[in-house]
Amino acid sequence: MTDTLHAEHISEADIAGMVSLFYERIRQDKDLGPIFEANVHDWDEHLVVLTDFWSALILGTRRFKGAPIPKHAALPDLSWPLFERWLAIFRTITHDIGNPHLQHKANMMAERIAAKLWQVYKEQTVMTLPDTLPPGLEYYSQSPVFTPETLPEKLKATHTTKAGTYGLLRVISGIVRFTVEHSQTDYIVTSGKQIVIEPDVPHHVQFELSGSFQIDFYRSKDHVKRD
Ligand code: HEM
Protein backbone atom coordinates (compact mmCIF):
# COMPACT_ATOMS: atom_id res chain seq x y z
CA MET A 1 0.00 0.00 0.00
CA THR A 2 1.21 3.52 -0.72
CA ASP A 3 1.54 6.33 1.79
CA THR A 4 -1.47 8.02 0.23
CA LEU A 5 -3.63 5.01 0.94
CA HIS A 6 -2.34 4.91 4.50
CA ALA A 7 -3.20 8.57 4.87
CA GLU A 8 -6.78 7.84 3.85
CA HIS A 9 -7.24 5.93 7.08
CA ILE A 10 -6.14 8.90 9.14
CA SER A 11 -8.32 11.94 9.82
CA GLU A 12 -7.59 15.41 11.17
CA ALA A 13 -9.56 14.41 14.25
CA ASP A 14 -7.26 11.40 14.80
CA ILE A 15 -4.26 13.70 14.68
CA ALA A 16 -5.74 16.32 16.99
CA GLY A 17 -6.65 13.48 19.41
CA MET A 18 -3.13 12.05 19.28
CA VAL A 19 -1.53 15.43 19.98
CA SER A 20 -3.87 16.22 22.84
CA LEU A 21 -3.38 12.80 24.52
CA PHE A 22 0.37 12.95 24.04
CA TYR A 23 0.83 16.34 25.68
CA GLU A 24 -1.60 15.51 28.47
CA ARG A 25 0.61 12.52 29.23
CA ILE A 26 3.99 14.22 28.75
CA ARG A 27 3.10 17.11 31.04
CA GLN A 28 2.82 14.56 33.85
CA ASP A 29 6.22 13.03 33.17
CA LYS A 30 8.69 13.76 35.95
CA ASP A 31 11.60 14.51 33.60
CA LEU A 32 9.92 15.97 30.52
CA GLY A 33 6.98 17.71 32.22
CA PRO A 34 9.07 20.47 33.85
CA ILE A 35 10.83 21.27 30.53
CA PHE A 36 7.48 21.86 28.84
CA GLU A 37 6.07 23.80 31.78
CA ALA A 38 9.11 26.10 31.75
CA ASN A 39 8.99 26.77 28.01
CA VAL A 40 5.39 26.52 26.84
CA HIS A 41 3.50 29.61 27.92
CA ASP A 42 0.28 29.10 25.99
CA TRP A 43 -0.82 25.46 25.88
CA ASP A 44 -3.82 26.08 23.60
CA GLU A 45 -1.52 27.63 21.05
CA HIS A 46 1.11 24.87 21.47
CA LEU A 47 -1.49 22.19 20.76
CA VAL A 48 -2.64 24.02 17.63
CA VAL A 49 0.98 24.33 16.41
CA LEU A 50 1.65 20.65 17.11
CA THR A 51 -1.57 19.52 15.44
CA ASP A 52 -0.56 21.56 12.37
CA PHE A 53 2.90 19.97 12.51
CA TRP A 54 1.60 16.38 12.59
CA SER A 55 -1.10 17.15 10.05
CA ALA A 56 1.60 18.49 7.70
CA LEU A 57 3.75 15.38 8.18
CA ILE A 58 1.04 12.77 7.98
CA LEU A 59 -1.63 14.28 5.75
CA GLY A 60 0.56 16.64 3.75
CA THR A 61 -1.33 19.77 4.80
CA ARG A 62 0.66 22.99 4.80
CA ARG A 63 -0.50 24.74 7.91
CA PHE A 64 2.66 24.30 9.95
CA LYS A 65 4.91 27.36 9.85
CA GLY A 66 7.17 26.72 12.84
CA ALA A 67 10.87 26.06 13.25
CA PRO A 68 11.37 23.04 15.52
CA ILE A 69 15.14 22.68 15.00
CA PRO A 70 16.21 26.08 16.38
CA LYS A 71 13.54 25.93 19.09
CA HIS A 72 14.86 22.63 20.44
CA ALA A 73 18.47 23.70 19.93
CA ALA A 74 17.76 26.58 22.31
CA LEU A 75 16.42 24.37 25.14
CA PRO A 76 18.93 23.85 27.96
CA ASP A 77 20.12 20.40 29.10
CA LEU A 78 18.54 18.07 26.56
CA SER A 79 20.02 14.57 26.31
CA TRP A 80 19.44 11.50 24.14
CA PRO A 81 17.77 9.61 27.06
CA LEU A 82 15.23 12.45 27.23
CA PHE A 83 14.50 12.02 23.52
CA GLU A 84 14.15 8.27 24.06
CA ARG A 85 11.72 8.92 26.87
CA TRP A 86 9.77 11.32 24.63
CA LEU A 87 9.64 8.58 21.95
CA ALA A 88 8.60 5.88 24.43
CA ILE A 89 5.65 8.01 25.58
CA PHE A 90 4.78 8.85 22.00
CA ARG A 91 4.77 5.15 21.02
CA THR A 92 2.49 4.29 23.95
CA ILE A 93 0.00 6.93 22.86
CA THR A 94 0.02 5.96 19.17
CA HIS A 95 -0.42 2.31 20.20
CA ASP A 96 -3.34 3.10 22.52
CA ILE A 97 -5.17 5.09 19.82
CA GLY A 98 -5.59 1.80 17.97
CA ASN A 99 -5.10 3.03 14.40
CA PRO A 100 -2.21 0.98 12.94
CA HIS A 101 -1.74 3.31 9.96
CA LEU A 102 -1.41 6.34 12.18
CA GLN A 103 0.78 4.41 14.62
CA HIS A 104 3.20 3.23 11.95
CA LYS A 105 3.54 6.53 10.16
CA ALA A 106 3.69 8.75 13.24
CA ASN A 107 6.23 6.53 15.05
CA MET A 108 8.48 6.39 12.03
CA MET A 109 8.45 10.16 11.60
CA ALA A 110 8.90 10.84 15.30
CA GLU A 111 11.99 8.62 15.39
CA ARG A 112 13.49 10.31 12.37
CA ILE A 113 12.85 13.82 13.69
CA ALA A 114 14.06 12.99 17.21
CA ALA A 115 17.35 11.77 15.71
CA LYS A 116 17.69 14.95 13.66
CA LEU A 117 16.85 17.25 16.58
CA TRP A 118 19.40 15.45 18.75
CA GLN A 119 22.07 15.52 16.04
CA VAL A 120 21.82 19.30 15.70
CA TYR A 121 21.58 19.76 19.47
CA LYS A 122 24.68 17.68 20.15
CA GLU A 123 26.78 19.37 17.48
CA GLN A 124 25.98 22.88 18.64
CA THR A 125 26.67 22.05 22.28
CA VAL A 126 29.94 20.33 21.71
CA MET A 127 31.39 22.70 19.17
CA THR A 128 31.26 26.41 19.73
CA LEU A 129 33.23 29.29 18.32
CA PRO A 130 33.68 32.67 20.02
CA ASP A 131 30.72 34.97 19.50
CA THR A 132 32.48 38.22 20.37
CA LEU A 133 35.27 39.96 18.49
CA PRO A 134 38.66 40.68 20.04
CA PRO A 135 39.18 44.31 21.14
CA GLY A 136 40.75 46.94 18.88
CA LEU A 137 38.77 46.20 15.72
CA GLU A 138 36.46 48.46 13.80
CA TYR A 139 33.58 47.78 11.49
CA TYR A 140 34.17 48.48 7.80
CA SER A 141 31.66 46.63 5.66
CA GLN A 142 28.77 44.19 5.46
CA SER A 143 27.76 41.34 3.15
CA PRO A 144 24.30 41.13 1.62
CA VAL A 145 21.75 38.97 3.46
CA PHE A 146 22.33 35.46 2.10
CA THR A 147 19.60 32.85 1.66
CA PRO A 148 19.97 29.34 0.16
CA GLU A 149 19.02 30.88 -3.20
CA THR A 150 21.55 33.72 -3.06
CA LEU A 151 24.45 32.04 -1.24
CA PRO A 152 27.40 32.41 -3.67
CA GLU A 153 29.22 29.25 -4.77
CA LYS A 154 32.50 30.71 -3.51
CA LEU A 155 31.19 30.74 0.08
CA LYS A 156 30.14 27.09 -0.24
CA ALA A 157 33.70 26.18 -1.27
CA THR A 158 36.83 26.61 0.83
CA HIS A 159 37.79 30.28 1.23
CA THR A 160 39.13 32.77 3.78
CA THR A 161 38.22 36.35 4.64
CA LYS A 162 40.46 39.10 3.20
CA ALA A 163 43.88 39.44 4.89
CA GLY A 164 43.52 40.83 8.40
CA THR A 165 39.73 40.78 8.22
CA TYR A 166 37.45 39.34 10.86
CA GLY A 167 33.88 38.37 10.02
CA LEU A 168 30.95 38.29 12.40
CA LEU A 169 28.47 35.83 10.93
CA ARG A 170 24.95 36.43 12.25
CA VAL A 171 22.25 33.86 11.58
CA ILE A 172 18.97 35.72 11.13
CA SER A 173 16.81 32.62 10.66
CA GLY A 174 17.25 28.91 9.97
CA ILE A 175 20.51 27.10 10.70
CA VAL A 176 23.97 27.50 9.19
CA ARG A 177 26.70 24.86 9.16
CA PHE A 178 30.13 26.51 9.31
CA THR A 179 33.01 24.14 8.52
CA VAL A 180 36.63 24.87 9.39
CA GLU A 181 38.77 22.97 6.90
CA HIS A 182 42.00 22.28 8.77
CA SER A 183 40.28 20.65 11.76
CA GLN A 184 37.38 19.30 9.67
CA THR A 185 35.09 20.68 12.36
CA ASP A 186 31.47 21.65 11.79
CA TYR A 187 29.85 24.36 13.85
CA ILE A 188 26.08 24.57 13.92
CA VAL A 189 24.88 28.15 14.25
CA THR A 190 21.19 28.56 14.97
CA SER A 191 18.82 31.47 14.46
CA GLY A 192 19.74 34.52 16.57
CA LYS A 193 23.31 33.30 17.23
CA GLN A 194 26.58 34.66 15.82
CA ILE A 195 30.17 33.43 15.43
CA VAL A 196 33.49 35.12 14.81
CA ILE A 197 35.37 34.17 11.63
CA GLU A 198 39.08 34.73 12.18
CA PRO A 199 41.41 35.94 9.42
CA ASP A 200 43.30 33.31 7.40
CA VAL A 201 41.19 30.39 8.56
CA PRO A 202 39.99 28.41 5.52
CA HIS A 203 36.31 27.55 5.91
CA HIS A 204 33.06 27.07 4.04
CA VAL A 205 29.42 27.71 4.79
CA GLN A 206 26.18 25.95 3.97
CA PHE A 207 22.58 26.01 5.12
CA GLU A 208 21.57 23.18 7.45
CA LEU A 209 18.04 24.55 7.51
CA SER A 210 16.76 27.16 5.08
CA GLY A 211 16.92 30.72 6.41
CA SER A 212 19.22 33.71 6.10
CA PHE A 213 22.48 35.09 7.46
CA GLN A 214 24.70 38.13 7.09
CA ILE A 215 28.36 38.87 7.77
CA ASP A 216 29.78 42.09 9.23
CA PHE A 217 33.46 42.70 8.47
CA TYR A 218 35.93 44.21 10.91
CA ARG A 219 39.64 44.98 10.82
CA SER A 220 42.14 46.54 13.17
CA LYS A 221 42.14 50.32 13.53
CA ASP A 222 45.85 50.33 12.55
CA HIS A 223 45.00 48.62 9.27
CA VAL A 224 42.61 51.46 8.38
CA LYS A 225 45.30 54.07 9.08
CA ARG A 226 47.73 52.35 6.70
CA ASP A 227 45.23 52.50 3.77
C1 HEM B 1 13.60 15.58 24.64
C2 HEM B 1 12.59 15.67 23.79
C3 HEM B 1 11.81 16.93 23.55
C4 HEM B 1 11.59 17.99 24.38
C5 HEM B 1 12.06 18.19 25.82
C6 HEM B 1 10.79 18.96 23.64
C7 HEM B 1 10.36 20.17 24.15
C8 HEM B 1 9.72 21.14 23.41
C9 HEM B 1 9.37 22.45 23.89
C10 HEM B 1 9.65 22.96 25.31
C11 HEM B 1 8.80 23.12 22.89
C12 HEM B 1 8.31 24.59 22.89
C13 HEM B 1 9.44 25.45 22.42
C14 HEM B 1 9.04 26.89 22.19
O1 HEM B 1 7.88 27.17 21.85
O2 HEM B 1 9.94 27.75 22.32
C15 HEM B 1 8.73 22.23 21.76
C16 HEM B 1 8.20 22.57 20.54
C17 HEM B 1 8.04 21.67 19.51
N1 HEM B 1 8.41 20.35 19.51
FE1 HEM B 1 9.48 19.40 20.94
N2 HEM B 1 10.53 18.45 22.40
C18 HEM B 1 11.13 17.23 22.29
C19 HEM B 1 11.10 16.38 21.20
C20 HEM B 1 10.37 16.61 20.06
C21 HEM B 1 10.24 15.69 18.96
C22 HEM B 1 10.92 14.32 18.88
C23 HEM B 1 9.44 16.29 18.03
C24 HEM B 1 8.95 15.79 16.69
C25 HEM B 1 8.86 14.53 16.37
C26 HEM B 1 9.07 17.59 18.55
C27 HEM B 1 8.27 18.52 17.89
C28 HEM B 1 8.08 19.82 18.30
C29 HEM B 1 7.47 20.85 17.47
C30 HEM B 1 6.95 20.67 16.06
C31 HEM B 1 7.45 22.02 18.23
C32 HEM B 1 6.91 23.38 17.81
C33 HEM B 1 8.04 24.15 17.16
C34 HEM B 1 7.65 25.53 16.72
O3 HEM B 1 6.82 26.18 17.38
O4 HEM B 1 8.20 25.98 15.73
N3 HEM B 1 9.64 17.74 19.78
N4 HEM B 1 9.30 21.04 22.11
UniProtKB/TrEMBL annotation:
Q: Which residues form the signal peptide?
A: none
InterPro entries referenced in this protein's UniProt entry, alphabetically: Globin-like_sf (IPR009050), Globin/Proto (IPR012292), RmlC-like_jellyroll (IPR014710), TehB/YeaR-like_dom (IPR015392)
Its domain of life reads Bacteria
Q: Which residues form the TehB/YeaR-like domain?
A: 142-207
Mind telling me which Gene3D superfamilies this protein's record contains?
A: Globins, Jelly Rolls
Pfam entry (one):
TehB-like
* Transmembrane portions of the chain: none
Know the name of this protein?
Answer: DUF1971 domain-containing protein
- Species of the source: Advenella mandrilli
